[in-house]
Design brief:
Blueprint: E1 5-11, H1 17-30, E2 35-41, H2 54-58, H3 61-65, E3 85-90, E4 92-93, E5 96-97, H4 99-105, H5 108-114, E6 118-125, H6 130-143, E7 146-154, H7 159-172, H8 189-194, H9 196-206, H10 229-249, H11 256-303
Parallel strand pairs: 1-2, 1-3, 3-6, 6-7
Antiparallel strand pairs: 4-5
Helix pairs in contact: 1-9, 10-11
The structure holds flavin mononucleotide.
């Protein structure tokens, strides 16, 4: 009898959305008698609030952007020493992996579990995940892990509407639809159900003679790179980084000065969203004919390894 393949799913979700996505991905693997799936919840020792108070929400960006991490309360009792595959689910917080996920990636346990191990990443976020995945790729490279797949599921209502609906969801705990025609936030039920195809591809590959490599999720429409968002993400992450330094110099998230700064930054951020995002998208559109090759290169880079 062939030996069972062991898969570890790393997960954390506030609203349960990412967990639903991962459940859909993992379903075919659970049905596969040749596979055993373990789960490790990346639970923060001190839970993050949900719904989020507005100031606390903003005040979280410096730690997220500067990879500060947090203390985790992990139940590692059922874990094996090593796995044939790790599925790393994560959501994006301020163009970075969420703080609990960063905390894990910086931990000695990540070093132990991910070294020399194939990893697939599964993202469920509003729709700006490119810079966050750059960071995750860098962490995985540092840890000696081998990224073989990435699937990114994004909110169904689109870039502009989700600038309103996703923060409303986070701040009220309600997904909508909201008054004034603001649509429902979050990834569509259809996209979540169809994420099953990723688990089916993994199961098929694990049961074949083919190696588990970068081709495993190719041709599955695993990601869509919105090239209009590439410059916006770059500018915004630079801004988060610089302002984040100032915030961190003022103390922890509960320091009174930081609360004041958060109000100032919130105003700045809204102004940025209203100006820089549409302006950079427009500039990108105008320059598109000149930048065609560069954009194609960027798309290939961000879509790696599973492709669009
Ligand atoms: C503090 C915070 C910051 C966020 N920043 C981003 C972001 O930069 N880009 C993005 O696409 N989504 C962002 N989101 C949305 C999340 O990625 C995710 O869609 C949402 O939190 C639901 O995930 P969960 O309930 O599975 O944890 C943010 C959410 C939170 C709570």
């Amino acid at each position: 009898m062939t030996q069972k393949k062991h898969i570890l799913v790393l997960h954390y979700s506030q609203t349960g959305q990412l967990d639903r996505v991962l459940e859909s991905v993992v379903a075919p693997l659970r049905e596969d008698p040749a596979v055993e799936v373990d789960f490790l919840e990346l639970q923060p020792a001190k839970p993050y609030p949900y719904p989020w108070p507005a100031i606390r929400f903003i005040n979280t960006f410096p730690e997220a952007v500067h990879d500060v991490g947090c203390e985790l309360a992990l139940d590692t009792s059922g874990l094996k020493d090593s796995y044939d595959l790790v599925i790393l689910g994560y959501q994006v917080w301020f163009l970075s992996p969420s703080i609990p996920v960063t905390a894990f990636l910086r931990s000695p346990l990540a070093e132990k579990l991910l070294k020399d191990t194939p990893v697939v990443t599964v993202i469920a976020c509003r729709n700006m995940w490119l810079q966050a995945q750059e960071k995750v790729r860098a962490h995985l490279a540092r840890l000696g892990a081998r990224l073989v797949g990435n699937a990114a599921l994004v909110d169904e209502c689109g870039t502009v509407a989700s600038f309103l609906s996703t923060p409303l969801w986070m701040l009220t705990g309600k997904r909508g639809p909201f008054p004034l025609g603001i649509p429902r936030a979050g990834v569509s039920d259809k996209d979540i159900a169809e994420a099953r195809r990723f688990g089916a591809a993994l199961s098929q590959r694990l049961n074949s003679d083919q190696p588990l490599d970068e081709t495993v999720w190719q041709g599955l429409n695993a990601v869509t790179v919105r090239d209009k968002l590439i410059p916006s993400e770059k500018v915004a992450s630079r801004s988060f980084y610089l302002w984040g330094k100032l915030f961190l110099a003022c103390g922890g998230p509960d320091a009174p000065v930081r609360k004041l700064l958060a109000i100032v930054y919130l105003i700045f951020l809204v102004a940025m969203i209203l100006t820089v995002v549409p302006l950079s998208a427009l500039l990108k559109k105008l320059c598109a004919p000149l930048l065609r090759r560069r954009i194609a290169r960027q798309r290939t880079h961000f879509a790696w390894p599973s492709g669009e």
